Amino acid sequence: MIDPDDLARCHEMIRHGSLSFHAASRLLPARVRNPAMALYAFCRVADDAVDLQAEKAAAVLRLQERLERVYAGRPDNAAPDRAFAQVVESFDMPRALPEALLEGLAWDAMGRRYRTLSELHAYSARVASAVGAMMCVLMRVRDPDALARACDLGVAMQLTNIARDVGEDALEGRLYLPLDWLDRAGIDPEAFLRDPRPTRALRKMVRDLVLQANRLYYRAEAGIGALPLSCRPGIYAARHIYAGIGGAVLASGCDSISSRARTTRAQKLWLLGVSAFRAGVTTCMPRSAVLYARPLPEVGFLIDAAAVSSPVWQREDTLFEALNALAARQRAERASLNRGSLRAS
């Protein structure tokens, strides 16, 4: 399905760029692991294309063009694009899912902040749950309840990332903590970004994020039993490795500014073993009623998209709004540069 050379390039990108996913993917069967590598490599390219560029608006607009070419069957001459195009064709990947990721990246490029936890869930749905839903598609799972639990796992992982990276994000001028949490603590966002400190109030917010993630990890577990048996160890591994990062955050006193929590290689190997064991146990257990829990309202559009088998999707107005805003920003930046050049001459 995927050119072996392109697949090798994707494996190498993930091995260096996403250690947690690379570790968890070792427990997936090859029929899922290989397209998953292509998927994650394309997502990694998309994330880096925005995160590492000074002109973030232009980077997102270029990504939109690349995605258009993937779905037109004319991918760019790059291993992740070619491999992802094969995945789109072979698995009938609904376009709503990668475009949701693109919208989340557009929000990042706009420097968007989130007033409430619900708004943060909406962002997490786009940059993480969309990937979880795409993983379900790769496993040939389109059941709405299983998709809801996959989306829970995605939001949980993103909340864990945010809790771990508060200090690192602040150094880059990024802030993902809900603004109403900061308001209640009497913390001015701009003052915090100028001088981020692990105050008691800040550490409580980090702890609350980890606890929110842990609640969703518990809900997500109920969906693993609805996956193909051969896929369960890998998804358990992803769940346990990311939750392990949250545990490391708690062990640090929720100080995500002075240091960055991580799991060691030995811990990852232990968690892989635990995951393989738990996947075997689930075959003997009755299906949990939590599987049928109501999905987070912020992920409903992903479930609706992935539960059908057609890649045809009408974009929501919110994506158009984000892309139009970025295009307007790009034009304004260029006009400002041109005026500066004229004054200098």
From TrEMBL:
<protein>
    <submittedName>
        <fullName>Phytoene synthase</fullName>
    </submittedName>
</protein>
<dbReference type="InterPro" id="IPR002060">
    <property type="entry name" value="Squ/phyt_synthse"/>
</dbReference>
<dbReference type="Pfam" id="PF00494">
    <property type="entry name" value="SQS_PSY"/>
</dbReference>
<keyword id="KW-0808">Transferase</keyword>
<dbReference type="GO" id="GO:0051996">
    <property type="term" value="F:squalene synthase [NAD(P)H] activity"/>
</dbReference>
<comment type="similarity">
    <text>Belongs to the phytoene/squalene synthase family.</text>
</comment>
<dbReference type="InterPro" id="IPR033904">
    <property type="entry name" value="Trans_IPPS_HH"/>
</dbReference>
<dbReference type="InterPro" id="IPR008949">
    <property type="entry name" value="Isoprenoid_synthase_dom_sf"/>
</dbReference>
<comment type="pathway">
    <text>Carotenoid biosynthesis; phytoene biosynthesis.</text>
</comment>
<dbReference type="InterPro" id="IPR019845">
    <property type="entry name" value="Squalene/phytoene_synthase_CS"/>
</dbReference>
<keyword id="KW-0125">Carotenoid biosynthesis</keyword>
<dbReference type="GO" id="GO:0004311">
    <property type="term" value="F:geranylgeranyl diphosphate synthase activity"/>
</dbReference>
<dbReference type="GO" id="GO:0016117">
    <property type="term" value="P:carotenoid biosynthetic process"/>
</dbReference>
<dbReference type="InterPro" id="IPR044843">
    <property type="entry name" value="Trans_IPPS_bact-type"/>
</dbReference>
